[in-house]
Amino acid sequence: MKSQRLLELLGEIGDQYILEAAPSGKKRRSHTVLGKWGAIAACALVLLAACFGSWALEAEAKEYQAAVQFFRDYGMSTDGLSRADIIAVYRDITTESFTFSKTAEVIKNSLSANFISGYEIEQDQPTPEETETLWNYWNHVSQSNGLAGSNQEGVYYTYSSTYKMVDSLGYEIHDTSYLEKYDGDTLLWRVEVTDFRIDGYCTVSDGVIVFGQDDVSAGWQNACAWLMKIDTDGHPVWQQRLHHGFGGEYVADIVENEDGSYAVFSRGDLAYFCLSQYAADGTLLHVSKTEIGNCGIWQAARIGEGYIVQLGSPLSQESMRLVKVDYGGTITEAFSYSSEDAYYTITDMIEFRGKIYLSAYAVPKGEEDEKGAGNRYEIDDILQYLYENDIYEISSEELTPLVRENYTALLLECDPITGTPQTFYSVKGSLGGKLCVNRTGTLLWDVESITSTYYSPATSAFTIGGTSTVFRYTFDEHGQLLDQEKTGDMVDYRR
What we know:
Layout: H1 2-11, H2 15-20, H3 36-51, H4 53-73, H5 83-94, H6 101-114, E1 118-120, H7 128-143, E2 155-166, E3 171-183, E4 186-193, E5 197-204, E6 207-213, E7 225-231, E8 236-241, E9 249-256, E10 262-268, E11 272-278, E12 284-291, E13 296-303, E14 306-313, E15 318-325, E16 331-336, E17 342-352, E18 355-364, H8 380-388, H9 396-406, E19 408-414, E20 421-428, E21 430-437, E22 443-455, E23 464-475, E24 481-494
Parallel strand pairs: 1-20
Antiparallel strand pairs: 2-3, 3-4, 5-6, 6-7, 7-8, 9-10, 10-11, 11-12, 13-14, 14-15, 15-16, 17-18, 18-19, 19-20, 21-22, 22-23, 23-24
């Protein structure tokens, strides 16, 4: 927003001053010509200064403070400017005169520092055949009360759990968890896990590692985290229970190191950040604990000889906080991304050619503070519109444009040292998806384009659901867009 305002201010400056502020060519020396009335005003100023010197100094000091604050508010640098220059630029802009020769230079330099160049990608429209496929999928979703099965192609994993009733306890406890590997619709193998409840998995070069927790039946029991390595053929290789001294611990993410070992990121007692290093055979090598307070650990990626980790909380709409962590688990740096007019959510991150790439999406902030909206803040404006107009039924044709208008997928290319975004790509009506590097060494970015939606106010798990079509974008080693592809995959949208 500030960059946009600076652009507007620059547009109000005379062309001669913009040319004068240009980096190329010699700048003309400006000459100030005082007429009769200017000379009289200058004499009056001298007399006032002689009689009321202390008052003038105080007034100048207040104006200077106001000018400095103005520069800060608009993200403008004061480097290379004298005290008089800062005041003069401040007066020039606030009075809308735009006649001071240095004003254009200050604004242009500030734009260069604060404005991130980027590119908007326009998606290809679906063909009639693709529209028919979407309709068939949508109809299946509708018939199944919004609960559709997987529509993925290629090799992928799924997990699930079953529970059993214990009469002596009066409630159900975990019975068996399953990890399944599919190729399209074909089940390749299934692994049963009874020692713990599977909460997630991470694929590695020679298989997959599932993680989860003890299913505790009493408050005094510890909920320890678990790991299990499974090879590509579905054979369990090793299993480890994490004993880090916490009453409760959960695994957030696992990253495979270059030497085949594994970095396991977990959270202990809802307050500690943990990094455990495990050898390829499952042997514990190192563990570190750092108290970070009430902050969740969402995902991690390897960068250089260390890692970058996403921290945040959905209740506070904080999802753009990143920390750099060394191999030993020490947090070395932290940076975050925010905006005055939008909420941002990171969905994936990866190191590529020495830079950090963040897949994310943005939703606009409402006119009011929406901290109380909880997890529904993304669609709060849409729900308010529906509630205020007593709309309890709405067609997909009417609802989908409202939902699409609410989302913009983003790919941020960031400096690995400072975390500063250097450029970005955006896709309207979409959510940022997975990032990966393919075998040819190019970067792949999946974008989930929202194509159909439905309104379900009576459903407890979500209020707006729908279907997204997956587009895949390919980037070369320099981060330049090479290709756009419709993958044929469809994923569910739930909020």
